[in-house]
Design brief:
Oligomer: single chain
Distance between the termini: 27 Å
Strand content: 35-45%
Largest sheet: 10 strands, antiparallel
Shape: globular
Radius of gyration: 27 Å
Number of helices: 3
Structural class: mainly beta
């Protein structure tokens, strides 16, 4: 059971006085979370799938279990335990208007762990989301609050640490408080510059296709005419590490005039998915390549971006050389500059006249209807106009038709309601039906959904190809290292081929046993084996359920 909100009502809980207005900087510096020298494996604002990296990742010398110290006086305001994401995370609210977050931790301090474990056993659940009243659990700066780990979607020991503005939830760059603790004299470096001719109004080298230019070829002028935009693929680097990082500042000048600027110094929660409007989403989805576009699409509301009155678009309307210059800069002021020439040459520009059935306007609500399908896209979900290359196909004997909403990846800002009609019911139990999205490799990924009056209904956040599918296959359960069970090291591997694991429960001798689930490696492992009586026979029952209600129930004696 996933707990969305749980307010602990302890006797000593009393509301704090209203917090003072948040200053531009903390009244006193935050202390480091570790006693050893700080190095980063990830920085703030790195480009990630559907979000910006919301904090910094501090290396922990390749091991777990390093003591984490509270960076300022404060109280525990929230604790998360999840199979993925942060894994285990601690939120501490400080009187200076900020909240610090510590993710992927191995173990909480005892006063926190006791409350978490009490809740888990009482409610028979591993994942929790606990919210605390002010002053229920307090820590002073420098006190140990947790041990570093590798929990959740972490793929190497480290501490993910965030600093948020308490009133708005805005994520800000923690490194700004530790520039005297982390050395960096290495500037960012670029690998590719992209040019984007605007539809119907621009061409590059006689084509309306985007053009990639390796930095090694920037000395050769590129011919263009009309409206174009640029983009750049680049990473930052730091002294003494092989890691790459996100670039804090990108500025584009044309003939000495600034046309675009990005400064990745703060992100509000509802801005995260707009990373898909700033970056070249198609490049990322098809080539796993991050290109930062120096253009603000009309539906992009990211505050970190600034541009000229054309949103970063440059008009090439004279037969001359236009001098483009990119300046990349990190938090420490380390800079790199890339120059290239766009040579204005008059070229024919084909008029943009898309012959499509559905043309979506970014600033309006859109409804797409085909036989047996409807998609509602509210206003604010698109970043730019989209001419859909849609089609309806599939076997007439299939459960539903197959609907290609578009032939290129298009991200939506939030969930949009998709309905697909079910043409046949080969399985009577309608809970076994779900909406599937066809992936790049031709496989199916579940979009979930519920059945209602002959329709499957789900919420989607990307245009693609969708159809109705059936899942009647129960989850897989594989016991691991059974000879080790007698010592309490009880582990399983669990998985589901179609809709995914929704829930699980383990009982030993008829009583709830707490097992942690790691989504990154599909492992279930027993917590608190000391609760297990040694030297006596036991019976373990494991029930695993997927999102279509298919259930696997196994029983083991050990």
């Amino acid at each position: 059971m996933t707990i969305r909100k749980y307010i602990l009502a302890l006797a000593l809980g009393s509301c704090m006085a209203a917090q003072a207005q948040i200053p531009e900087a903390p009244e006193s510096p935050f202390i480091p979370p570790f006693d050893f020298p700080l190095t980063l494996s990830g920085n703030f604002g790195e480009l990630r799938s559907n979000h910006f990296h919301g904090g910094v990742d501090f290396k922990t010398q390749g091991v777990v279990g390093k003591p984490i110290r509270c960076i300022a006086d404060g109280y525990v305001s929230r604790v998360l335990v999840t199979p993925g994401g942060y894994g285990q995370a601690l939120f501490i609210t400080h009187p200076n208007g900020y909240t610090s977050v510590y993710g992927h931790v191995l173990k909480f301090a005892s006063q926190v762990a006791e409350v978490v474990e009490e809740y888990q056993y009482k409610h028979e659940t591993f994942p929790v989301d606990l919210h605390f009243e002010p002053n229920q659990i307090n820590f002073k700066a420098g006190e140990i609050i947790a041990l570093s780990g590798n929990e959740g979607y972490s793929f190497g020991p480290h501490l993910h640490m965030e600093i948020r503005r308490t009133d708005t939830g805005e994520l800000i760059d923690p490194l700004q408080f530790y520039t005297d603790k982390v050395k960096d004299t290495t500037p960012p470096r670029a690998t590719v510059v992209m040019l984007y001719p605007q539809r119907g109004t621009g061409v590059v080298n006689g084509s309306q296709r985007k053009k990639a230019i390796p930095v090694s070829a920037l000395g050769t002028p590129v011919e263009a005419w009309g409206d174009i935009a640029a983009g750049i693929k680049a990473y930052d680097y730091m002294d003494g590490t092989a890691n790459n990082y996100g670039v804090r500042s990108v500025v584009l000048y044309v003939d000495s005039a600034e046309v675009f600027r990005s400064t990745v110094d703060g992100v509000l929660p509802d801005e995260n998915r707009m990373i898909n409007a700033w970056t070249d989403y198609e490049e990322f989805k098809r080539r796993n390549s991050w290109v930062m576009r120096s253009q603000i699409l009309p539906g992009n509301r990211l505050r970190m971006l600034q541009a000229n009155d054309k949103g970063g678009v440059v008009t090439i309307d004279e037969e001359r050389d236009y001098r483009f210059r990119y300046v990349l800069q990190d938090l420490y002021g380390n800079k790199s500059t890339y120059r290239f020439t766009v040579r204005g040459r008059r070229q024919p520009i084909a008029e943009y006249q898309p012959e499509v059935k559905h043309y979506l306007a970014w600033n309006k609500a859109n409804v797409i209807q085909e036989p047996g399908m409807q998609l509602v896209i509210p206003r604010g979900m698109l970043y730019e106009d989209v001419a859909l290359n849609s089609r309806v196909g599939g076997d007439t004997s299939a459960v539903s038709f197959e609907y290609q909403l578009h032939d290129a990846p298009v991200a939506l800002q939030s969930g949009c309601a998709l309905m697909i009609g079910v043409r046949h019911l080969p399985v009577a139990d309608t809970s076994k039906y779900y909406i599937a999205r066809k992936t790049a490799g031709g496989k199916k990924a579940s979009a979930g959904g519920t059945y209602e009056d002959g329709w499957m209904k789900a919420s989607i956040r990307e245009l693609g190809t969708y159809m109705v599918a059936i899942d009647t296959v129960p989850p897989r359960v594989t016991p691991l290292d059974k000879p080790q069970w007698k010592s309490g090291n009880i582990r399983f591997k669990i998985g589901d081929a179609e809709t995914g694991i929704k829930d699980y429960k383990v009982m030993i001798d008829g009583e709830f046993a707490l097992f942690a689930f790691s989504a990154k490696n599909a492992r279930l492992s027993m917590k608190h084996p000391e609760r297990l009586k040694k030297g006596v026979p036991h019976t373990l029952e494991l029930v695993v359920t997927d999102y279509c209600g298919n259930e696997t129930r196994e029983e083991y004696a050990f």
